[in-house]
Amino acid sequence: MSTSTVPGMVFRQVHPNHWDGKNPNSVAFSPTPKDQDQLSVDDASLVTAEESWTHFTKNLGLQSVGVWAVTANEIASSGELALLRAPITGQTDVQKDNPAHCLIDFSKLTTKGQKKRCAQQLALLASVRGCQFQPVA
Q1: Is 102 helix (H, G, I), strand (E, B) or coil?
Q2: Tens-place pLDDT, residues 15-43
Q3: Is the pLDDT at 4 greater than 80, yes or no?
Q4: How far apart, in whole angstroms, are the C-alpha atoms of residue 18 and residue 32?
Q5: Which of 4, 11, 24, 137 could form a disulfide with 42 if both were Cys (CB 3.0 to 4.6 A apart)?
């Protein structure tokens, strides 16, 4: 995929168990086994952080304490991660469609240590940038 088609920045939802009350931890930026080495994010050029959060929590019924962001350059700087567009369309329930959906591909990383190191770096970069949207409690 050419870099011209890659989003400049992507949003990541953070589950309540994956933050310290201020910043996300590395688990928030780690794909789970069910994710098959693919971490879901949203293209910030297509949705706002608040729209991303609303889709995730209201349309999909999932939990998120807020939205953090990383850039395509930060993802690419690992040398092993790739950012891919992966729009979700044509769902039976159109509320679950997500044309902004992208994936951070961890599949080139072969060890848990490599995956954790990259997830830690993404979490740190996102934390430095700060929360992009957090609902009013």
Answers
A1: strand
A2: 999 999 999 999 999 998 889 999 999 99
A3: no
A4: 13
A5: 11
Q: What angle do CA 53, 56, 61 make, to 5 degrees?
A: 130
Q: Please state, in angstroms and rounded to a whole number, the distance separating the CA atoms of residues 66 and 135.
A: 7
Please tell me the predicted confidence (pLDDT) of residue 60: 95
Report yes or no: 38 and 103 within 8 Å, Cβ to Cβ: yes
Residue 4 is encoded by which pair of tokens? 């011209």
DSSP code for 47: S
Q: What is the pLDDT of residues 48-68, one digit of tens each?
A: 999 999 999 999 999 999 999
* Residue type at 120 in one-letter notation: Q
SS3 94: helix
Average pLDDT, the chain: 93
Contact status, residue 70 vs residue 12, Cβ threshold 8 Å = yes
In angstroms, the CA 64 to CA 85 distance is 22
The reported pLDDT for the residue numbered 3 is 40
Contact between 104 and 57 (Cβ < 8 Å): no
